[in-house]
Amino acid sequence: MSNLYKDAEELVAKMTIEEVAKQLKYDAEAVERLDIPAYNWWNEALHGVARAGTATVFPQAIGLAAMFDDELLFKIAEVIATEGRAKYNAQAKEEDRDIYKGLTFWSPNINIFRDARWGRGHETYGEDPYLTSRLGVSFIKGLQGIDNYPECDTLKAAACAKHYAVHSGPEGERHHFNAKATKKDMEETYLPAFEAAVREGKVESVMGAYNRTNGEPCCGSKTLIKDILRGKWGFKGHFVSDCWAIKDFHENHKITNSPAESAALALNNGCDLNCGNTYLCILAALKDKLIKEEDMRKACVRLMATRMKLGILPRTDEEATKKIKEYDGIGFLECDTPEHNAVSLKAAEESIVLLKNNGVLPLKESEYKTIGVVGPTADIRSVLEGNYNGTASEYVTNLNGIRRTAKSRIVYSEGCHLFKDRISNLAKANDRMGEAVAVVKNTDITILCVGLDATIEGEEGDTGNMFASGDKISLKLPDSQLNLCKNVMKAAKENGKKVVVVLNAGSAIDISELDAEADAIVDCFYSGGQGGQALANVLFGKVSPSGRLPITFYKDGEQPEFTDYSMKNRTYRYFKGETLYPFGYGLSYSKFDVNASLETAGFVPGGDADYDALQKTSVNVKVDITNTGDFDADEVILAYVDKCPAEKLSNGLNDVTKDKLDPDDQPIKSLCAFKRVSLNKGETKSVTLPVSAHSLTTVLEDGTRAFLKGEYKFSVGSTMIGTINLQ
Could you tell me if residue 584 is inside a domain? Predict the structure, then answer.
């Protein structure tokens, strides 16, 4: 890899140890004598450049997952990197080097959304490790710049895979919680997306989690950082702590006795950069001989190498310098462009999931002279933004989008507060209920907008939901909205009116009652700056809905204990109960004829294959698909494999014992490939979905992967398409 690390080593060798120490904290200080400017490492770009002023706001990550479109996600990440560069280039010229102004973006969040109550679940790509892996790699490559591969010698921006590892709530316990996960669950569920981010995405940085995993604090874990991340996976980038997580070592986890000991534990196990202030004690740790100077310098070299890749610091490689000059030429006006907002609109359209439709959608305006829009999420920006968001120069709320698109008269009522029992403080409870019912009675059809926002579900400390630290205590809508729904549905039924429900939320909501009574239900997630226009385009048939659920919708009360990190009875792969809407679910206005078959590619799985070998195609799912409906539309093809022939174990086909493989502890099925296909009405396309050998391995109880003998069943959607036998 050129002379990058030689340059970084030579620069660090010129620093005093005090200067080195100042580079190991997120708000790195300038070293003027070496022409090293101050640099703040903390920036966010979960679904657009965040927290630093105007930028294109894309749908929240969970909505981007609902697209099942890794190619569009790559393009979105490219846009984010361009806007990040545009803002950085302009602001650096003004010597504005504050927080949220750099090129090191602490995104994506590739944790598994294992429990629907977790407040930060909407920051993730859902509940499936395969989907999360593919989307994570696409986002990372798009953000960092495809020209960097395979060497990654220059970076358009630096991505960060977080939160490593085994992190998904409860939010209120994250600073002292010990997540206990079996070796099988680690390898099968919690680690695959991080491994893919490192091995395939070449992610520049990894962020540790607040919690402990199997007793070790994640930001100072020898097992996670030294043994797995840097050892087994060969990670070469830098490791950053979550913010103020290292102080939890002594204050909350109680595994060290002082800040100096905590700093030493983190640094000695490979944490290069401290988001927080505990590394202010790192020189004290050095003085007490808890750490070595060479380890401080090694961490600093990794950090300087990242800054050199980004062009923040000069280097001797002429080709790399030439490439960086191209990035430096991205001007301020390339941020928040009409073209970028068009990409946001497309993403919002693709992310919308049609959950129910009795034929009322798409709306035929000739049938409705008046349209009622009711509900607390109809005209608020927060359901467009999610969290970790930027500021759009234009917000199209649900109500705005409907007004722009409909030719009918629109009559609006907020109906109720998002969660309080009244809107006006001096009024009695349910102070907008009469108005809402009047809208239903006096219009031809009602669009009922309900849901949550990041003040209800989100990160600890960032939400108004302090009683649950950002997590949900129930999968139901807030009482204020349940009451509104009850009254709207009652008025509609009594007056022979139809109701279309629009849901904005970042997680699974138990809307059983609405499912029973509504004429249609549309899930928009947190839909981005153009979200309301995307909704209107779907409601009025300009676009056929094509999103699919990246999570399972459960009925309230059917979840295991929140703090139990076992995957048993969690997610579609293990849940054995009755779901409200399953993973991968989503309706369309059009109809599709799908003919699928299996084709082996000549690669026969077997032996102890390494990671790269396991990525090779083992089976192809061949699909001929025809749009037989009346709408131009996209269809998402989802291929699954039942990859553990557990029922064959008793027949002696596998030389495994129960201590190596528990037949009752296997996935029901697992996603192994997906593809979004665009089809005009009447059009036929043939597509091939490659299935890797990795998807045919079974994870044993000791965390190793093996190819088991037996029959493997493949399906597209819920239709079985064939089997293969491994001998």
Answer: no
